[in-house]
Amino acid sequence: MKAIILGIGAAFFFAITFVLNRSMELSGGSWLWSASLRYFFMIPFLLIIVLWRKNLKDLLREMKKHPVQWLLWSCVGFGLFYGPLCFSSAYGPGWLVAGTWQITIISGSLLVPFFSEVIQTPNGPVKVKGKIPFKGLMMSLIILIGVFCMQFNQGEDISLKSTLLVVLPVLIASFAYPLGNRKMMQICEGRLDPFQRVLGMTIASLPFWIILSVYALKTVGTPSVSQMNQSLIIAISSGVIATVLFFKATDLVKDDVSQLAAVEATQSVEILFALIGEIIILHAAFPSMFALFGIFLVIIGMILHSYISRPKDVIINEEIGA
């Protein structure tokens, strides 16, 4: 339950990204700067936290062990996640991007066979190949149906081209984020805390952001003061607070792929927070009754997903009457 609560908290701070990215696009800011500035601004904050906790040496030691893996999976988990997400904001409203992003619930479950999970046996812990959690996947489908209901009426006003330019990049991001996160958890093997891991992945992904910012400088010029300020807010709320909360939640359940999928499913709440944010900040229209029904489905789907994905030992004890 603690991991689920942390996941919902992360969803709130992640939702700020969708609202402010759309706000920057509407004010003429480039998605190239929206993407790269966030990670540039994240580094000093995370560095201060890690230094204060006296954990920097341990982080650098871990990064030296597997420099190629850190570079690769950080660019996948952060670069191929946030770059496409910002690109999508240029072609659709925040609610559409946030709604489409919920495909990560399915993506995370489909990645399960590529990872191993630890199962307790009479002879001790054993690693076995993960299996797709079909029960949890069905609950995820309920969540996605709710998301589609929230988008349906408004989606009729969005052109097919704009829809594709939103959906396809977010589809890439939905696989890249859990893939990069899980790979880095495997490499770290619990030796780093969430602050260290986020800082390490941010530093390792810098080549991606430097290339993106150089391209932005040559094509659109320097970012405006307003875009820099909003990017700073995103860096603190989504880049530092939300990412650390989410990584902490996944760390708590890293040895149970079903629980891991449940934590990733909490990110469906982002669309609720994003919708509220757009109504308040960007003066978007209040959702229809059909959309409110979708919100209800999302909440029910999350509750069911959390129940289905309970730890195996709890379920076994209940079945034998313990």
From TrEMBL:
Tell me where on the tree of life, at the top rank, the source sits: Bacteria
Any transmembrane segments, and where?
31-50, 70-90, 96-115, 136-153, 159-177, 198-217, 229-247, 268-285, 291-308
Q: Where would one find coiled-coil regions in this protein?
A: none
UniProt keyword list: Membrane, Transmembrane, Transmembrane helix
The record ties this protein, via InterPro entries, to: EmrE
Protein's name in the database: Multidrug resistance efflux transporter family protein
What is the organism field in this record?
Answer: Heyndrickxia oleronia
